[in-house]
């Protein structure tokens, strides 16, 4: 008759047998390397109790409470550095459990123990990984919100400074303008040509400063959603004609060529704030002039799109690198070193505060339009050029009935010209 195999020791008893050594080994090992806080041993007691409960019931979910507590206890440095310290603890516990089992138990008892607790440890690792990932995602989200709020505060402070500075500068500038005008009158009466030339330089500087202050006020209005539009019927082609003629002196002095072509929609009457749209297009054209070398060319064209009129301003300038193509539309979005820029508004690579394109974008977005730029890149030898795309809503109705009647009258009056006018306007130095 074969010898009956004696039953092995129950896993619960095996766990109780190794408990003292397990807590001693795990506590000593983890505390030595991790600056574990006081009370860690009590935490290990709790962990072992739940481990035993999980093995006894066959349900590893008993471990969830302590695993969640440990995962949520991640320090700020752990989170910032992307360290998953609880996963490390569980992995070390597995290794130390095997070590303690080999040192304390028989071979069979070790096998029985590991067979019972390894599934619990494996479950724990998966739970911890999920908890730690959720904790880290929450931390990153909180950090992003904090940074966003900080950026918003900085932007508000910047806008407030711009607004206050612009308004504070206007008063003394007005006084300077008044005194300069009186001095100009005196110089003319005295027929002092030398003084007249000096005052011309002063007035030029005053005009430039006035333009900068006006730009600062416009930026402040755009930032604070205070830009009010006065919609009137206008033709994009007429606005381009005015700006082309306005640019002629600069074009001649810099030997630049500007071509403006008629296109479908250029003579269509639409409702826009004529003054603001003119300002936006002027800023884009001035930008093209600024970054196109002497003897270069600027082309203004366009097309009709569903619901929009697109204006395209191309230049043969130095181009814009990919990483800077969005920056240039931000406030003070100067590219390159400020020290390398001149103060001239239309000189090649002329400087300025970097507000022109930001204002243009604000005006166009206030209309419901858009602006973007395309360029192969930046090159001061090859001159790859840049192409600015401007979308203006083709709004043909006004909320004002009187304005609508005026619009209809203008449209009927000029309709024959639209049908027959297919000429191309070219102005070259």
Describe this structure as you would to a colleague:
The protein has 429 residues and is of the alpha+beta class. It folds into 2 domains: 219 residues, no CATH class; 197 residues, Histidine kinase-like ATPase, C-terminal domain (Heat Shock Protein 90, 2-Layer Sandwich), CATH 3.30.565. The protein contains 11 helices and 8 strands. The strands form 2 sheets. A 6-stranded mixed sheet has the order 6-7-5-4-2-8. Helix 5 runs antiparallel to helix 6, helix 7 packs across helix 10 and helix 9 packs antiparallel against helix 10. The N and C termini lie far apart (119 Å).
* Order of neighbouring strands in the sheet with most strands: 6-7-5-4-2-8
The radius of gyration computed from the alpha-carbon positions, rounded to a whole number of angstroms, is: 37 Å
How many domains? 2
Number of strands: 8
> Roughly how much helix do the residues carry, as a percent range?
55-70%
Concise synopsis of the structure shown:
The chain is 60% helix and 10% strand. By secondary structure, it is an alpha+beta fold. The chain starts with 10 loop residues before the first helix and ends with a strand.
Key terms for this structure?
Heat Shock Protein 90; 6-stranded mixed β-sheet; two-stranded antiparallel ribbon; 10% strand; 429 residues; alpha+beta; 2 domains
Topology:
Blueprint: H1 11-34, H2 40-57, H3 64-72, H4 76-81, H5 85-104, H6 107-189, H7 193-223, E1 232-235, H8 236-253, E2 257-260, E3 269-272, H9 274-290, E4 297-305, E5 308-315, H10 356-367, E6 370-374, E7 387-393, H11 401-420, E8 425-428
Parallel strand pairs: 2-4
Antiparallel strand pairs: 1-3, 2-8, 4-5, 5-7, 6-7
